[in-house]
Write a structure and sequence with these properties.
Order of helices and strands: HHHHHHH
Structural class: mainly alpha
Number of helices: 7
Number of domains: 1
Helix content: 55-70%
Distance between the termini: 79 Å
Number of strands: 0
Radius of gyration: 20 Å
Shape: elongated
Length: 159
C-alpha cells in the first residue's frame, strides 16, 4: 500500500511538472484568400473549410481551453502537425498543379469515406460536423477544381 501511495504521489508530481511544458502553438499566417480565389470557392465551401478544416490544415489554429493541459496539448499538437503534413491550406500557393490536383483527390476521398473531419475533432467542435449537403458541396468543389488542374497539366504536357 505504501508503494502504491508513493507511485501515485510521484505521478501527480510528474503531471504537475509537465504543466510547465507546452509545445509551440500553431499561430502563424493563414491567408486562405489564395486558395479561395484560385479555386473560385463558393461562400458555403469557404465556411466549411474555415469551420471544419483549418484548425489542423493551416498555419493558424484556434485552440480550445484544454490546450493548456499537458498531455492534452501534446496530443493536439501531434494532430495538428500530422494534419499539416498531409495538407496545409496556408501554403496552397506553394503546391505544384500536380500536387494541388492530388490534394483535392485526397479531400474527396477522405470526406466521402467519412474520415474527415476526424471524429475526435467533431466530438468537441459540433459545428464542424458536415451535413449531407455540405459534404456534397465540398466534394463538388474539389472535383471541379481537380479536373481543372488536370486539364491545365494536360495542356502543359502538349507544349
Amino acid at each position: 500500500m505504501k508503494k502504491l501511495r508513493k507511485t501515485v504521489f510521484c505521478l501527480i508530481i510528474l503531471l504537475l511538472l509537465l504543466q510547465f511544458y507546452s509545445p509551440e502553438k500553431n499561430i502563424g499566417e493563414s491567408n486562405l484568400n489564395v486558395l479561395f480565389s484560385e479555386t473560385n470557392a463558393p461562400e458555403s465551401v469557404q465556411i466549411i473549410i474555415k469551420t471544419s478544416c483549418t484548425d489542423c490544415h493551416s498555419n493558424l489554429t484556434t485552440y480550445p481551453w484544454y490546450n493548456n493541459i499537458t498531455p492534452l496539448n501534446i496530443w493536439l499538437n501531434d494532430h495538428i502537425e500530422e494534419g499539416k503534413s498531409h495538407l496545409n491550406f496556408s501554403v496552397w500557393n506553394d503546391y505544384s498543379l500536380k500536387r494541388k490536383a492530388h490534394k483535392l483527390e485526397e479531400i474527396i476521398e477522405e470526406v466521402q469515406e467519412g474520415e474527415m473531419p476526424l471524429n475526435s475533432y467533431t466530438w468537441i467542435h459540433k459545428d464542424a460536423i458536415l451535413t449531407a449537403d455540405e459534404l456534397s458541396s465540398l466534394v463538388s468543389w474539389a472535383k471541379s477544381n481537380q479536373m481543372k488542374y488536370e486539364l491545365i497539366m494536360g495542356f502543359e504536357d502538349h507544349d
